[in-house]
Amino acid sequence: MPKQKQPLLKIKRLHTGFYINEQLHHAISDINLTVNEGEIICIVGESGCGKSVLSLSIMQLLPKLIAEISEGEIIFAGENLVNKTTDEMNKIRGKEISMIFQEPMTALNPVFTIGFHLTEVFKNHTNLSKKEAREKAISLLTQVGISRPESIVDDYPHQLSGGMRQRVMIAIAIALNPKLLIADEPTTALDVTIQAQILELLRQIHHEHGMSIMLVTHDLGVVAEMAERVVVMYAGQIVESATVKELFQNVKHPYTEALLGSVPHLDHDEEMLLTIKGVVPSIEKMPKIGCRFADRCMKAFSDCAHISPQLAQVDDNHYARCLLHEACYPKDRVQPEEVK
């Protein structure tokens, strides 16, 4: 019998918001999420659904002047990151939790060499000498598939292609073999061939080091290829969660169904792709009550406008937030006959 994976990260009722005109507007609300040891989990959804805000909340990298975690816990390896000071988080970032940012050209400092970016990690977290850190940096560049690492280590970010810069970001992220790697849209703006290489590299790192990976993406092709579990987000909430196989074969939320329906298939001769009408609401215009997807949903009915669905288990290890399922009604509310 295979050993059951233990939770590495547990997020409980997390609410993160931004101050606009001195009023706090939540970008993510009531997030409950677990990432197990050695697991690859995908967070999927359209732009503006709160995926990156969730990642930055875990890393505690949101600007404190305009952003705030107003409620909830982020338990990593038994400790609540929300209560950590900046100095305490600096000891965790890079060593215990690392992040690959969405755009490597802006994440890498243009005035410093690739070698500086890599050796800075060792300078902050280890006692390696300058020579040892440089040797380690060259070894990491080799590990992530960069040719001529001895010369690349002295190059600047603008001298590298997008794919090479992303590999450098991955090298920085895995330098100290962290327990959790957060990859925020790691294949954005890369061509298809390079995307496949980056995903294969992440799979290889996961296999060799056994680290947990939280992959943030809007690409369902990436989800099918990489994930063990999938969490679908919409308008700052989790609307569906299941294993990859279960999600693709037995969709429980209309938003997930619409996402899957908008993906082109090579074996289907379709003149027009399905689209989801409307846009994700901004945090200032987020509905206070009712289902946040209701005005875009093809299956919405009267209750959807004035009853807020709960995230509930609707099948074995399958969770959804939709009033089409009786379990998602608030406990003090009886579901009408027409929906049963």
Query: What structural class do the secondary elements suggest?
Result: alpha/beta
Number of strands: 12
Q: Determine Rg (CA atoms, Å).
A: 21 Å
Total of DSSP H or I helical runs spanning 4+ residues: 11
Low-confidence blocks of residues? 335-340
As a percent range, the share of strand residues is: 15-25%
Which sequence of SSEs, written as H and E, runs from N to C?
EEEHEEHEHHHHHEHEHEEHHEE
Oligomer: single chain
What overall geometry do the principal axes of the alpha carbons give?
Answer: globular
| Strands ordered across the widest β-sheet | 6-7-8-3-9-10-12-11
Helix content: 25-40%
End-to-end separation in angstroms reads: 39 Å
Largest sheet: 8 strands, mixed
What's the overall average pLDDT, rounded? 91
Q: If you had to describe this structure to a student in words, what would you say it looks like?
A:
- This protein has 11 helices and 12 strands.
- It is an alpha/beta fold and 340 residues long.
- Helix 4 (114-125) packs across helix 5 and helix 5 crosses helix 7.
- The relative contact order is 0.13.
- Strand 4 (67-76) and strand 5 (79-80) form a beta hairpin.
- The strands form 2 sheets. An 8-stranded mixed β-sheet has the order 6-7-8-3-9-10-12-11, sandwiched between helices. It has a 4-stranded antiparallel β-sheet with strand order 2-1-4-5, covered by helices on one side.
- The chain has helices at residues 51-59, 86-92, 104-107, 114-125, 130-143, 149-152, 162-174, 192-209, 220-226, 244-249, 254-261; strands at residues 7-20, 23-36, 40-44, 67-76, 79-80, 97-100, 180-184, 212-217, 229-234, 237-243, 312-315, 318-320.
- The longest helix is centred in the middle third of the chain and has 18 residues, at 192-209.
- It is globular and about 65 Å long.
